[in-house]
Write a structure and sequence with these properties.
CATH architecture of the largest domain in chain B: 3-Layer(aba) Sandwich
Helix content of chain B: 25-40%
CATH superfamily of the largest domain in chain B: Glycogen Phosphorylase B
Largest interface: A-B, 21 and 26 residues
Strand content of chain B: 15-25%
Radius of gyration of chain B: 21 Å
CATH class of the largest domain in chain B: Alpha Beta
Structural class of chain A: alpha+beta
Number of domains of chain B: 2
Radius of gyration of chain A: 24 Å
Structural class of chain B: alpha/beta
CATH class of the largest domain in chain A: Alpha Beta
Order of helices and strands of chain B: EHEEHEHEEHEHEHEHEHEHEHEHH
Number of strands of chain A: 18
Number of strands of chain B: 13
CATH topology of the largest domain in chain B: Rossmann fold
Largest sheet of chain B: 7 strands, parallel
Helix content of chain A: 40-55%
Oligomer: heterodimer
CATH superfamily of the largest domain in chain A: HUPs
CATH topology of the largest domain in chain A: Rossmann fold
Strand content of chain A: 15-25%
Chain lengths: 611, 354
C-alpha cells in the first residue's frame, strides 16, 4: 500500500516537468508510505514517476519503486497488493524473465512485457498503477476491478498528472481549483463524490476496472475491462442451483480461498472486528487458513455502553472463539473533537463516512498493526442492505404511476413543500423516481433529494451540477448490461456505487492516514465470479446466514443472530450538543427536528473546510 | 473535408492565421484528399492558398449560407466537417447528421468560454474532436459543455519564424512618430469598445510611475476600434499625451517594422484566447509581458517566453513592465516550440486518431 505520482508533459509546448512539483505531490502522501520513497525522471525531462512506500511484501530495498524491467524501457509505480503474484512470478520465470526482487510490483513490470495492458485480467488483488512504456512513448494508468485503490488524474491540455489522492495533485500547485458542480451535487445527493467526478473540474478518477492511456495527444478515454454488472449479467446464463449442503460448501471454500490469498504478506496480518457477521466470518476464515498470532481491534463508545450499538462485548466473544489477541479501543467525544482538524485534512474528498475507519485504523496503528482484514463487501454480496428487499418492491409498486406523464413531477412539486414537515423528504419523490431501479436507488441511498440542492448550493450550482451529473444515467450505468434479476441488479448497484464511492474510498483515506493497509477478502473478482451464478439463482439464500455458516467453528450465537447496525459513531449526539459542530443550524433545511445526522454532517464537514 | 470557416485567407489576425495553418496542415495530410471551405471573407490576394483547398466565398444572408452548406454536404459527402466557429456549430451538426462524417470544432477564445445562448450550443455533444488554441479555452469549454475531456485537444498557434526578424528601428517609423532616442513600449491589438480587455488602461494608469523611472518612455498603442476615443480621453484627462501615441490601424506590411520600432511589448490582457501577438513580438526579439489568468499563459509558456503577471496586481504589473523595459532584445529559445512543423505534426496526429 503506497502513494504514487506520475507526470507526463505530452504537449510539445509544455515545459519540462518540475522535479520539485513531483516531490511535493509525492511527499504530501507521506502517511500512505512512511517506509521509503523513490523517483524516476526520464532523460528528456518529459516523464516522471514518484512513489512512497509502505513495505508489506519483500521488505528489502530490492522491492523499492519505481520498479523497472531488465532493459529499463518500462518504469512502474504501484499501490496495492497482487495476491496471486507468486503464481504469476513462477510463470514469468518460466518464460525467461529475470527477477531482482520478490515483490509483486516487479511481477507487474514483467507481466506487462508479456501481455501489455491485457495484464490487468490476470491480476487478483487491489491496485492502482502508473506505468511508463518508453517503446510506446505512452503512460498507462490502471485501476483494480472494484476500485479498491484510488487513482486520479488531471489533464490540463499540456500535461497529465496522476496521483493516489486528489489533494496530493492540488499540492503541486499546477492543477486548477475550479469546482466541478457534478462532483459537489453528487456528494450532497449520495454522501460521497461519485466517480469519475471529483469536486474539482480538472481532476477525474480513473474509473474502477478501467485503464487510461496517455500519449502525445493527452489522456485517452477510459477503457473499461471489468464490470460488476457484466459478471451478474453473465452469471444468469451459467446459473446453477445447489443443495444447501453444496451451497454452504462452495461458499465456504470460495471465501476461504479468498481469505487465504489476502493473507499473503511479509508482515503480520490482523483484523478489524465488529459485532457483525462479516468481520467475524473473515477472522474465522483467516484462522482456518492458518493465520497465526492475529490481533483484532474493535472500537467502542461511552455513549453506546450497554446498548445494542455497543459492539465491544460481542467482538470480544468472537476474539475468544478464534483465539486472537484483542484490543477494544474507546473513543470519546473529546478525542473526536481533537482529531477533527486532521480528519478533515486527510479526508481526500468530502464524505459522510469514514470516521469510524479512521479511528479503528488509529487504534490498530497504536498496537503496531500494518495490515488488517475487513469484512467490507459482505453486505453487497449477501444481501445485507434493506435495498435488496425494498427496491424491487418499490419499483414494482410505483411502476404504473411512473408511466403517467408529468404526474411524478407534479406530485413532487406539491409534496416537497408539505411532506418534509412530517416525514422524510424522499416520500415526495416516490412517484417521480420510484418506478425504476435507478430512481429507487437514488431514493434509497439519497442523502439529499435533487430538489433540495438549491438550498445547499444555490440555484446555478445545483442546476448545473444535476445536469452534468445526470444522476439517473450514472446509476443506470452501474446496472448495464442489465443483470435482470432483482438480487443481481441491487448487488451490482450497491457494489458499483455505494461500496465503491463511499466504503472503499473512505477505507482508503482513513486507513492510509495511519499507514494501515486494509484488505477486503469479500471484494474479490474470483469470489464474485464463482458466487454470482449460484447466489443469483436463489437470492432467498444469499443472506448473512449463509455467510455466517462459513465460519468454522461457528460464530457466537449473539453475533450470527444480531440485527444489522452498521459500523456507526454517535455523531448525531455530538453534532447536536457541540457548539463548534453546529454550522448546520444555519440552514432551515437541516434544522427541522428529526433531520438525519448524515445530512447535517455533510454540510458541516464541507463548511468546516473539507473542500 | 467540408469546412465552415468564417475567415482564413481574408485576414491577418491570430485567428485567421490559425485557420490558414490548419488548412495548410490538413492539405499536407495524406488522409485528406480535398477541402472545400465556405467562408464569409474574400481571400487577400497575396496569401497563397493550399493546393487541396477550394474556397467558396459567400457573404450576405445566413439562409443562403446554410442552403449552400447543405447542398455541398449532400453533393460532396465529406468524411470530415470542420467547424471554424462555435456560432456555426448547429449547421455543422446538421451536416454531420446528413453525411455521417466526423465533426471537428475549432475554438479560440471568448466565444467558447460561456454556454452560447439559444440554439448555438446545440450539437456540442456530437463533436468528435475539439481543437482548442489554449489550455484556458479548453478549460472554459469543459466547464459548460458536457463534452468528454479527451475529445478536447490543445493545438497552440504556430509562428512562422522565417516571416519575422530582429532589426534596427525603421527610420521611416522613427520619423513618422517622432520617437528618435525614445524607449518604446508597444501594445498591438484591436480596441473593441464592448470588450476592453486588452489592458491598455492598466498600462496608461502606470505611465506616471514608469515615466519617472524611464523619462524617454513612449507608450505606443497600435490598433483601432471603438474604444480608441475613450482611451484617448483617459490619456488626455491624465495629461499623458506626451507619453502615448495612438497609431490607429497599420498596414499588414508595416507590422514587423512596428515590432522592430519597439523596445518591449506588453499586453496585460484578461481575456485572450491565446495571444498570438506575444509570439510575433518575441519573434522580433522583444521582451514581452502578459497576463497569467487567460490564454496568454500558453503563449508565454507559463512565464518562460516572457513575464507573466497577475493583471489585477498593480505592483506586479509595474515591476514586470520595469523589467521588460530594461531587458535586451533577444529571441527566446522556447519560441521554437511554436514553429509550424510541430503544429502540422500535431494536426496529422489528431487526424490519425479521429
Amino acid at each position: 500500500m503506497c502513494g504514487l505520482v506520475g507526470v507526463f508533459a505530452y504537449h510539445p509546448v509544455a515545459p519540462d516537468i518540475s522535479r520539485d512539483e513531483v516531490r511535493i505531490i509525492r511527499d504530501s502522501m507521506q502517511s500512505r508510505g512512511p517506509d521509503g520513497s523513490g523517483e524516476w525522471f526520464s532523460a528528456d525531462g518529459r516523464v516522471a514517476l514518484g512513489h512512497r512506500r509502505l513495505s508489506i511484501i519483500d521488505l528489502s530495498e530490492a522491492g523499492s519503486q519505481p520498479m523497472t524491467n531488465e532493459d529499463g524501457t518500462i518504469q512502474l509505480v504501484f499501490n496495492g497488493e497482487i495476491y496471486n503474484y507468486q503464481a504469476l512470478r513462477e510463470k514469468l520465470i518460466h518464460r525467461g524473465h529475470t527477477f531482482r526482487s520478490h515483490s509483486d510490483s516487479e511481477v507487474l513490470v514483467h507481466l506487462y512485457e508479456e501481455r501489455g495492458e491485457e495484464m490487468v485480467h490476470e491480476l487478483r488483488g487491489m491496485f492502482a498503477l502508473v506505468l511508463w512504456d518508453s517503446n510506446r512513448k505512452a503512460m498507462l494508468l490502471a485501476r483494480d476491478p472494484y476500485g479498491i485503490k484510488p487513482l486520479y488524474y488531471a489533464d490540463d491540455g499540456w500535461t497529465v498528472r496522476a496521483a493516489s489522492q486528489v489533494k496530493a495533485l492540488l499540492e503541486g500547485s499546477n492543477v486548477s481549483l475550479l469546482p466541478e458542480p457534478a462532483g459537489i451535487a453528487g456528494f450532497y445527493l449520495t454522501g460521497s463524490v461519485p466517480e469519475p467526478f471529483t469536486i474539482y473540474q480538472e481532476i477525474r478518477a480513473v474509473p474502477a476496472g478501467s485503464v487510461v492511456w496517455v500519449n502525445h495527444l493527452g489522456a485517452s478515454a477510459p477503457k473499461r475491462y471489468f464490470s460488476i454488472a457484466q459478471v451478474f449479467s453473465e452469471a444468469r446464463k451459467g446459473a446453477t442451483r445447489l443443495s444447501d449442503f453444496e451451497l454452504n460448501q462452495v461458499v465456504h471454500e470460495t471465501l476461504l480461498d479468498s481469505v487465504r490469498h489476502h493473507l499473503v504478506a511479509d508482515v503480520a496480518v490482523s483484523g478489524f472486528l465488529s459485532a457483525g457477521v462479516d468481520s467475524g466470518t473473515i477472522i474465522a476464515l483467516a484462522r482456518e487458513a492458518g493465520a497465526e498470532h492475529m490481533q483484532t481491534v474493535t472500537l467502542a463508545f461511552e455513549e453506546y455502553r450497554s446498548t445494542h450499538d455497543d459492539e465491544a462485548p460481542l467482538a470480544r466473544e468472537v476474539s475468544r472463539a478464534y483465539g486472537t489477541a484483542h484490543r477494544t479501543r474507546s473513543l470519546s467525544e473529546a478525542e473526536f473533537q481533537k482529531e477533527l482538524p486532521r480528519i478533515l485534512s486527510v479526508m481526500d474528498q468530502p464524505s459522510i463516512d469514514g470516521i469510524n475507519t479512521y479511528f479503528i485504523s488509529k487504534a490498530a496503528a497504536e498496537i503496531g498493526v500494518k495490515v488488517a482484514l475487513s469484512g467490507l463487501g459482505g453486505d453487497e454480496l449477501f444481501s445485507g442492505y434493506p435495498s435488496f428487499r425494498d427496491i424491487p418492491r418499490w419499483a414494482n409498486f410505483s411502476r404504473f404511476a411512473a408511466h403517467i406523464p408529468t404526474l411524478g413531477r407534479l406530485t413532487r412539486a406539491i409534496a416537497s413543500h408539505v411532506v418534509p414537515r412530517y416525514t422524510s423528504p424522499k416520500l415526495a419523490g416516490m412517484i417521480e423516481y420510484g418506478g425504476t431501479y435507478p430512481g429507487n436507488y437514488l431514493l434509497r441511498r439519497g442523502l439529499f433529494m435533487p430538489w433540495e440542492l438549491k438550498e445547499l448550493l444555490g440555484e446555478e450550482m445545483a442546476v448545473e451540477g444535476l445536469r452534468r451529473l445526470a444522476p439517473l444515467k450514472l446509476i443506470g450505468s452501474a446496472m448495464t448490461p442489465d443483470p435482470e434479476l432483482p438480487y443481481s441488479r441491487i448487488a451490482a448497484l450497491e457494489a458499483s456505487l455505494y461500496m465503491r464511492n463511499q466504503l472503499l474510498r473512505d477505507t482508503d483515506w482513513a486507513s492510509m492516514a495511519h499507514s494501515i493497509e486494509v484488505r477486503v477478502p469479500m471484494v474479490d473478482t474470483t469470489l464474485l465470479k464463482t458466487l454470482a451464478p449460484i447466489l443469483c439463482v436463489d437470492p432467498s439464500r444469499a443472506n448473512k446466514r449463509l455467510l455466517a455458516q462459513s465460519a468454522q467453528p461457528p460464530l457466537p450465537v449473539g453475533v450470527s443472530q444480531r440485527l444489522k447496525t452498521g459500523f456507526t459513531l454517535p455523531l448525531n449526539r455530538w453534532l447536536e450538543r457541540n457548539r463548534t459542530l453546529d454550522i448546520w443550524r444555519r440552514l432551515p433545511l437541516l434544522s427541522r427536528p428529526g433531520t438525519h445526522w448524515a445530512r447535517r454532517w455533510a454540510y458541516t464537514s464541507v463548511s468546516m473546510g473539507m473542500s | 473535408m467540408l469546412a465552415l470557416m468564417p475567415d482564413a485567407f481574408g485576414g491577418f489576425a491570430g485567428i485567421a492565421q490559425y485557420s490558414r495553418d490548419l488548412f495548410e496542415s490538413f492539405s499536407a495530410s495524406s488522409r485528406i484528399d480535398s477541402i472545400v471551405s465556405l467562408t464569409r471573407h474574400p481571400p487577400v490576394s497575396n496569401i497563397p492558398i493550399p493546393v487541396k483547398l477550394t474556397e467558396r466565398f459567400l457573404a450576405g444572408h445566413s439562409a443562403r449560407y446554410i442552403i449552400l452548406a447543405v447542398w455541398l454536404a449532400l453533393r460532396l459527402r465529406p468524411n470530415v466537417i470542420l467547424c471554424g466557429h462555435l456560432n456555426l456549430l448547429p449547421i455543422a451538426t446538421l451536416l454531420k447528421k446528413l453525411t455521417g462524417g466526423s465533426l471537428i470544432l475549432q475554438v479560440h477564445g471568448i466565444e467558447a468560454w460561456r454556454r452560447p445562448t439559444g440554439l448555438r450550443s446545440w450539437g456540442i455533444g456530437n463533436v468528435d474532436l475539439v481543437i482548442s488554441v489554449s489550455r484556458f479555452t479548453r478549460q472554459q469549454l469543459l466547464l459548460w459543455s458536457d463534452i468528454e475531456p479527451h475529445r478536447v485537444r490543445v493545438v497552440s498557434n504556430a509562428v512562422h519564424l522565417d516571416d519575422y526578424s530582429v532589426g534596427e528601428k525603421p527610420g521611416y517609423l522613427v520619423q513618422r512618430y517622432g520617437v528618435k532616442g525614445k524607449l518604446v513600449l508597444l501594445t498591438l491589438g484591436r480596441l473593441p469598445g464592448n470588450e476592453r480587455y486588452k489592458g491598455q488602461d492598466r498600462i496608461i494608469a502606470l505611465l506616471p510611475k514608469l515615466a519617472a523611472r524611464f523619462p524617454n518612455l513612449i507608450y505606443m498603442i497600435v490598433g483601432d476600434g471603438s474604444d480608441r476615443a475613450r482611451l484617448e480621453g483617459v490619456v488626455s484627462t491624465q495629461g499623458l499625451e506626451e507619453y502615448v501615441i495612438f497609431t490607429g490601424r497599420i498596414p499588414e506590411e508595416e507590422k514587423i517594422d512596428h515590432y522592430n520600432l519597439a523596445d518591449a511589448f506588453a499586453m496585460p490582457s484578461t481575456s485572450e484566447g491565446f495571444g498570438f501577438v506575444f509570439l510575433e513580438a518575441a519573434a522580433c526579439g522583444l521582451p514581452v509581458l502578459g497576463g497569467g489568468n487567460d490564454g496568454s499563459r500558453d503563449a508565454l509558456v507559463d512565464g518562460r517566453l516572457g513575464i507573466m503577471v497577475d493583471c489585477d496586481s498593480t505592483g506586479e504589473l509595474l515591476e514586470g513592465l520595469e523589467e521588460i523595459l530594461q531587458r535586451k532584445k533577444r529571441v527566446p529559445d522556447c519560441l521554437k516550440l511554436f514553429d509550424f512543423p510541430r503544429f502540422k505534426l500535431q494536426i496529422e496526429q489528431l487526424l490519425t486518431n479521429l
